[in-house]
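Students often ask why we bother encoding 3D structure as a string. The short answer is that it lets us treat folding as translation between two languages. Here is a chain of 725 residues written in the first language.
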Amino acid sequence: MSIATELSRRNFLKTSAAAAGGLALGFHVPFTPQAVAQTETPEINAWVMIKPDDTVVVRIARVEMGQGTLTGLAQLVAEELECDWAKVTTEYPTPGQNVARSRVWGNFQTAGSRGIRDSHEYVRKGGAAARMMLVQAAANEWHVEPSACTVAKGVITHAASGRSTTFGKVANAASKLQTPNDIPLKDAKSWTIAGKPLKRLDTPDKINGKLVYAIDVQFPGMLNAALKNCPVFGGKIKSFDAAKVEQMPGVKKVVQVADTGVAVIADTWWRAKTALDALPIEWDNGPNGSVQSADIAAAQKEGLTATEAFLGNRNGDARAELASAARRVEAVYGVPHQHHVTMEPMNATVRWTPDKCEVWTSTQNAESALATAAQASGLPTDKNEVFRHHLGGGFGRRSTSHDFVRYAVLIARQMPGTPVKTIWSREEDMTHGWYHPTTQCRMVGGFDANGELTALHMRISGQSILATVNPNALQNGRDAATFQGLNPQGPEGQFGYTIPNLLIDHAMRNPHVPPGFWRGVNNNQNAIYLESFIDELAHSAKQDPLEFRRKLMANHPKHLAVLNAVAEKVGWGTPPAPGVFRGLAQHMGYGSYVAACAEVSVSDAGVLKIHRIVGATDCGHAVNPQQIEAQVEGSFVYGLTAMLYGDITVKDGRVEQENFDTYQMMRMDEMPVVESIIIPSGGFWGGVGEPTICVAAPAVLNAIFAATGKRIRQMPLSKADLRKA
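And here it is in the second language, the structure alphabet:
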């Protein structure tokens, strides 16, 4: 087997990350147009192609999964290009092309709210460089200085001579020029395309049905496969009786997949699934076959008071201060495993031959998908390719693991030359996810004799994502990502309070259920823990929750600004409508500062109604305000659904919830009115898709306490009694 075939996904991504750093430092290198043969659509550089009819094709390295990144990135390129927005279209380059061209497009990963915040500079420079080359081409033709020319909506004008031309007419000449070394960018204050609430580019094709998701891919002669893996994580297949189903209608082949599962390949997916359901299978559940949810919870409970723990954030001596505190307040909170429940289940279509492996799929990281395909195909990397489609939901599931690509390739290898689409059933998707990690948190706060908060200890006990997903990223066994939103500083989550004596640590307890990156990741539960307990401390001190926070946030002006914004918008301090109660929360994550105020009512029977949530976001720069509002609304849906219903439980080692009848989603009539406040303060680039999800649940939980006098400390709310205390 060749070295290329032995490609390691970890080394592939490590090399890719290093190359991405080089892209930022040596920006002009990727834009060499000589590397690509001229076509009818000249490539000005890697980001911009312009057709003779002036249509601008902007290449998008990140992926669209409903969050609006495609439109936002196109806006940034078009802003610097000075083209006509009405003539902008987009396309995805492939990861194979990226590798072949020394990662000209940089990072293909779309996760961690990084789609725009990590690539804004080099995509803007791509647009600016293309504009400079187009102007240079026109100036060369007219024998004038480029500085004497102006650009507006794709038209280049030389005012002194009255001449003008369009991008399409000079594109071919521009594509032959060298990329400039010095590429200045526009001040955000002068933006006319970026920063504006423009309509999304992907909406029309979604409405008219032209958009093809990966699950919709069709090829002549294509077959379909249904997959079933051992229901217990860590188990494997013992045996199956293929003869029992091989003669069923449409069935082409029954195949084993690695040592964990089996698939049926048929002419239609339903026939494949029907045969698979009828297939006699014997499983070896392995050592995890007796694990129950109660066992997982017991291990976490033990960790709450364990001696050993990884340090996350510390100042002063919290233990000593708590030991001598005039008054202590203590609480334990917890969150269960939760599923991503993407509306489009995992799937991939693969055509494998001894010379080439092609994959059509939805992925949040096409380079990781390519590496996975290369491993599974048995072919060198350059003999593999991945073609991306818009995602019917990602939320981290299509970033954490590309098991769905691996299985699809292994299945297709057993039908050489035939395209095979593997679709996971909803049941397979639900019971074989990479779940939001389950943790508990014990918090102890201490007050002095004057009623001032002097100490706080937060002990998180539970699962580490990196311990499973990427153990090499652990720092001497410590998972830094566990402390998102609780760190002393840093863009991935920063503690927003000044407390003289602080200790935040983590007792790692990893069950067999695999954890994964889940929209908002660890910020979700950390915000629930911290913001709910801060509210408890405020009420214990008989202080207004807003004023209590303000005193602790004097040294955190950006945190305080978003909190003040929601308080002012909602009218904090003035009485709400009769029977309505309010709760606050603030957080910092993914480079952005967010806050929320919820208004709720709870009936005498314990029925919750969330009437309104006001959310504020400071993401530094707002590329498309309308999309930010949509992201805030969507993140609240996700966060509130998890708070209300999200609960994956384990019985005899396997996940119990198999479909939406046992894993409920928030309904439209449960959704509150959402009012968004966007206050980009400039000077930094923050994320949008994930930060605000973190404040929805704690704001509602604090409002529920105001309404009922009860603290709900264990999610989901569907298991809680909300009747007044």
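Translate back mentally: Residues 1-39 have pLDDT under 50 and may be disordered. Keep this in mind for the problem set.
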